[in-house]
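Q: How do we represent a protein-ligand complex in a form that can be generated cell by cell?
A: Start from the inputs.
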Amino acid sequence: MSNVKSALTIAGTDPSGGAGIQADLKTFQEREVYGMSVVTSVVAQNTTGVQAVHHIPVPFIEQQLESVFSDIEPYAVKTGMIASEEMMRVIARVLEKTAAAYVMDPVMYAKSGHALMGEHSRDALKTYLVPLAALITPNVPEAEELTGMTIEDETAMKQAAKRIVQEYGAKAVLLKGGHMEGHEAADWLYDGNSFTSYKAERIPTKHTHGTGCTYSAAITAELAKGRSLQEAVQVGKEYVTAAIKYSLQLGSGNGPTNHWGYRLQSVPAQGELHNGIY
Ligand SMILES: Nc1ncnc2c1ncn2[C@@H]1O[C@H](COP(=O)(O)OP(=O)(O)O)[C@@H](O)[C@H]1O
Ligand SMILES: Cc1ncc(COP(=O)(O)OP(=O)(O)O)c(N)n1
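Then emit the C-alpha cells for the protein with adenosine-5'-diphosphate bound:
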C-alpha cells in the first residue's frame, strides 16, 4: 500500500459546489489527503434547493468502485447520498473487503427538505452499511428516522446515539446538534463505552449549505492520516466551525461553507477579504 494518504467519497454531486462530492473533495484537499470519488447520483441543486436528481445505474457504480479499489486502496472511505437499497448492497460488498476506516454520513434530506434517500431504503442502511462503519454521523432528524425517537434535548441525543450503537451494531456514533436550539452547537460522540461532547458557539448565519458533508469529510481525512477517532472528530469540529464562521454569501439561498475558514483563524485580522474568500 502506498504511503500517500488517500480518502474516497462515495456520494451524490452538487454542481454549485457546496455539498456532496464537491464539498468532500475540497475538504480532503484542504486536509492534505489525496481525494477520490465515486458518484452515486447526479443532483441538480444549488443554494436554494434541489431541482432534479439523476441516479447512476447500479452496475456503473459498481464499475467505478472496481476502478478505484483495483488500483488505489484508500486509507479511509466516507459515504454520503446513497439513494437506494440496490446501491447500498453493492457498496457494502466492497466495504466488507477493505481495511479502510469507513465513515457513514446517513444523508436522507437536503436542508431544503428534498429527500435524497428513498424512504424504503432506511432499513437497508441499517442492515447493510451501519454494521460496517467505524463512525456514523447523523444529524438530529436523521437520528430520529433511524431510531424512531423524538430528540429534543441532550439527554435524548445521548440515548439515541447509544441505541444506534447497541441495537444496530454501529461502532461509534457522532450525533450532530446543528438542528437543536441554543447558543452552542453541541455534538455527542458515543464509542460504545463513553460519551465525548464537541461544542462550539452557534454562529448566527443562514449560510450552512454543506456543513454535514464538510464535517464528515474532515473526519474521514483525519482518520486516513491515522488520527484516533476522538482526535479526528475534534479536528473535524474545528474545521467545520471555521468553515461556517467564514461561510460565503454566494447564491440567493443558504450559501456554502468556506474551506479556507480553518486557515483564516490563525491569520492576523486583515482588511478587505481577498475575492470575498480570504
Ligand atoms: N450555526 C451554526 N454554528 C456553529 N456550528 C454549527 C451551526 N450549524 C451547524 N453547526 C455544526 O455543524 C456541524 C453539522 O451539523 P448539522 O447542521 O447538525 O448537520 P447537517 O448539515 O448534516 O444537517 C455540527 O458540528 C453542528 O454542530
Ligand atoms: C449530493 C448531496 N449530498 C448531501 C447533501 C446534504 O448536505 P449537508 O451537508 O447535510 O447539508 P445541506 O447542504 O443539505 O444543508 C446534499 N445537499 N447533496
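DSSP finds nine helices and ten strands in the chain. The pocket of LCLJCK34 (ligand 2) is lined by residues 11-14, 18-20, 43, 45, 80-81, 107, 110-111, 116, 209-213 (CB under 6 Å).
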